Amino acid sequence: MGIDLASIIGLVLGIVAVIIGVITGAASPIIYVHLASFLITIGGSFGALLVANPMSRILDMLKLFGIIFRKQEHGELKLIQNLVSFSEKARRDGILALEDDLESVDDNFLRKGIQLVVDGTDPDIIKNVLHTELNKIQERHDDGIKLFDTWGKLAPAFGMIGTLIGLIAMLTRIEDRSAIGAGMSTALITTLYGAFLANLLLIPVKNKLEDKDKEEALIKEIMIEGILSIQSGDNPRILEEKLLSYLPTDKREAIQQESMRE
């Protein structure tokens, strides 16, 4: 497991670009620092997020942030090689021989599937059990995705609330010229804060979590296909081609070339 450089570089680049724009486009960058706007946009939207979600989900936010900055190495080549190896052993020594290899399987999902095969479970039951497990995994992922999706919608909304607050404050004291500037400042900066938070952080995090969910689901689908093929006694070479077909063409060719080098 490495570092996802795209997430780090993108976040830093976005922040730096905005800072440079602020510095070069304003007489004094300090005018963009506004406590009332910060409280309305950040505090208000986060408060609404607390109302919309259980505390347990909110507490998972830091873990979810960590996920987008980690590059998950799924090891498709090793997974396919292991499944083909299990298939060869099952055809040579029988399904029960796979029980000796269960301790060496690190992935709980794959281990459960192989154990079901060794236990002689009906193929339809295995398929239902594994797909149910996969659906539950994706439901947990969806909770995190929806969390950032919700906050990404709330932040601009509270930016608009701040805009209305600023306009109301300005209009109630419209005869006082000094109040006009302060009201307009709150009105515009809250909108800026909401758009900045949503578009540079919250929506990109949601999108990255969706991508990682798809990657993990694909790996689990490969495992399910491999497990069911092992139970049905498919030819190991046919199994390998079947599993490779789940991957994009470029990754499939790269894996095949790496396999040939080995």
Walk me through the structure.
With 262 residues, the chain is an all-alpha fold. It has one domain. The chain contains ten helices and two strands. A two-stranded antiparallel sheet has the order 1-2. The protein is elongated and about 90 Å long. The mean pLDDT is 87.
Which ranges are low-confidence, i.e. pLDDT below 50, for 5 or more consecutive residues?
Answer: none
- Report the biggest beta sheet as strand number plus sense, adding barrel if it closes: 2 strands, antiparallel
Strands side by side in the biggest sheet: 1-2
Radius of gyration: 26 Å
Secondary-structure element order, as H and E? EHHHHEHHHHHH
* Tally of DSSP helical segments: 10
Q: What's the oligomerization state? A: single chain
Shape summary: elongated
Brief sketch in words of this structure:
This protein is mainly α and 262 residues long. The chain is 80% helix and 2% strand. Helix 5 runs antiparallel to helix 9, helix 7 runs antiparallel to helix 8 and helix 8 packs antiparallel against helix 9.
Structural features:
262 residues; single chain; elongated; 2 strands; two-stranded antiparallel ribbon; mainly alpha; 10 helices
Secondary structure elements and pairings:
Layout: E1 2-3, H1 5-25, H2 35-52, H3 55-59, H4 61-68, E2 70-71, H5 76-93, H6 108-118, H7 123-172, H8 177-232, H9 236-244, H10 249-261
Antiparallel strand pairs: 1-2
